[in-house]
Specification:
Layout lengths: L15 H22 L4 H29 L3 H27 L6 H28 L5 H22 L1
């Protein structure tokens, strides 16, 4: 059985790591689709949904840090960040509703994820990716710098517990 969403070159934003992460998100979305269609246990579906949400946070965090590092237009950055937050809120809301109504993750969520991801990649992500490439952010070095900045922020919390 094919997945609900297939990667194609028209989804490429021209940044290797971001394209890789988008492929991974599509793969996890397809695993969620198969788990629902095959009526896997709530534990399997829940774990797959958790993996999707966790990886989405990782992906959004990298995108946003790359924009900051590149000096991306502030208004466009805030708008992009708001789109990320709205997405997470919507997914968590649908998932919470499914749990409260004691239902498995519905096709409503899968359909929303598929369409949102395609639209977000094809419009919003391609806009910021072009700006990053135009600013010269096209090497592995800037990916490492972004990851380092993310990890540095996370380590700050551990200092409070030491």
């Amino acid at each position: 059985m094919d997945g609900v969403f297939t990667w194609s070159d028209d989804l490429s934003v021209g940044i290797e790591e971001i394209d890789h992460q988008h492929r991974t998100l599509i793969d996890i979305l397809n695993r969620l689709f198969h788990a629902v269609v095959e009526r896997k246990s709530e534990e399997v579906i829940g774990a797959t949904l958790d993996a999707l949400i966790d990886y989405t946070f990782t992906h959004f965090e990298l995108e946003e840090q790359l924009m900051v590092n590149a000096g991306y237009d502030e208004a466009a950055f805030v708008s992009h960040q708001a789109a990320h937050k709205a997405f997470i809120d919507k997914v968590e809301g649908i998932a919470r509703k499914s749990v409260m109504e004691n239902k498995m993750v519905a096709f409503e969520l899968i359909n929303f994820l598929k369409h949102w991801l395609r639209d977000h990649i094809c419009v919003t992500d391609k806009q910021y990716a072009k700006a990053l490439r135009d600013a010269g952010y096209c090497t592995r070095q800037w990916e490492r710098e972004a990851r380092h900045a993310i990890q540095s922020r996370k380590r700050i919390w551990w200092k409070f517990w030491a």
